[in-house]
Design a protein that fits this description.
The chain is mainly alpha-helical. The chain is built from 2 helices and 2 strands. The model has no long low-confidence stretch (mean pLDDT 81).
């Protein structure tokens, strides 16, 4: 009998295509220098998304004064 891992518990009932997509997305995000988390529980939303990644965006306005 195969030993179950934490990721097996969360992936029960998901299709092989869905699991493959999650794996591909996780791999791509890591290559892009991001730190994705799989099945991380978000207490503020009471949700557990398939993949959670925080991307910080910096926005500023530059004006030239004459």
């Amino acid at each position: 009998m195969r030993k179950k891992h934490a990721c097996d518990i969360f992936s029960e009932g998901e299709t092989s295509e869905h699991l493959r997509g999650k794996k591909l997305l996780m791999t791509w995000l890591r290559k892009e220098g991001k730190n994705p988390q799989i099945e991380a529980y978000l207490t503020s939303l009471h949700q557990r998304p398939d993949i959670c990644v925080i991307i910080k965006l910096l926005s500023f306005n530059v004006r030239q004064y004459l």
